[in-house]
Amino acid sequence: MRNLTSSAASGRRIVDVHLLPMGCSIQRESRCLTGAARRPTWVGSQIPSSSNAASVPNASERPRLPSLAAPIGKGMHRFCTVLLAILCLLSNGCDRSLHTTAPAPTTAPLNLAVSANLQLAMQDMEARFERQCPDIDLRITYGASGSFFAQCCQGAPFDVFVSADTRYPRELVRRRLASETSFVVYAQGRLMLWTPPVESGRVGEHAAGDRGLERLVGDAFGRIAIANPRLAPYGRAAEEALKAAGVHPQVKDKLVIGESVTQAAHFAATGSADAALIARSLLETPALARGNHWQVPESLHAPILQAAVVLDRCRCRPAAARFCDFLTGTVGQSILMRHGYSLPNDAS
């Protein structure tokens, strides 16, 4: 092995050449640079002499490997920007998909069987209740209380029974078809005698004594509409009042029987009856508001106490309890009073 040493003005370079068989050589280089410039390394006989020093390439002419510390070019910068935008879109899309696939809150349906006399008042209560309890969807069916009682006994799909009396709800409790703790009296109804405006020439409400019902005996009233006494509490109260006033035998052949109190009111509104004994709340319809009406003395019939009860088959008892609380609460009671009902004086 031999060592060759070369020197330059800018520093000193030591080159160790290891002679191996077959004329191969391996270069090991160490540098001791005293200046900032670097010069190429030459091995063996390629060390330039002073005569061919001009042929040595400049440092700027040597091929350079790309440096990792070099700044990112415009193309790479554009690629990174596009990639980042795609990742943001994918992330946003995944987040949106999580929100859209999440189950939306659903409303719980509550099936109500409501006595027909409450139809106008219940429309107002339904709107107020669903604003107050948007998670509960009221599904209301109107009809005669007696018909609903029979349907409930046969397993009709009702959750709450809002009756026009207390007898039917109590009977459901006795038969263990309704919850006794849910039984509540929510209002007291008023029985009214309605006649067309041409009968007296005046429109308005008047107090009716016994003579108010006695006037039905004359020829001026050929047909008198009442609800079915066997199905509707208001029909039962009308029959009691006619009997208590002593005019039932004279007018029984004039009676036009409606299945419910709303049907009796419809007979009067369409001219199918000349007079009607109906609920005070139904006089708000435009056709009946033009007539004359008298309140039948409560001494002639049993108080029309109206009660509600939650049926045992109810599958949404919390919603049913919230409705009953609303019905007997401040808002529900104010709506009932505005529609002609009075607060119950006796809950028995």
Automatic annotation (TrEMBL):
InterPro entries membership: AvModA-like_subst-bd, ModA, ModA/WtpA
SUPFAM superfamilies: Periplasmic binding protein-like II (SSF53850)
GO biological process per UniProt: molybdate ion transport
Pfam family, one: SBP_bac_11
UniProtKB keywords: Metal-binding, Signal
A GO term for molecular function: metal ion binding
Family per similarity comment: Belongs to the bacterial solute-binding protein ModA family.
Protein name, entry field: Molybdate ABC transporter substrate-binding protein
Taxonomic source organism: Roseiconus nitratireducens
Lineage, opening ranks: Bacteria, Pseudomonadati, Planctomycetota, Planctomycetia, Pirellulales
Gene: modA
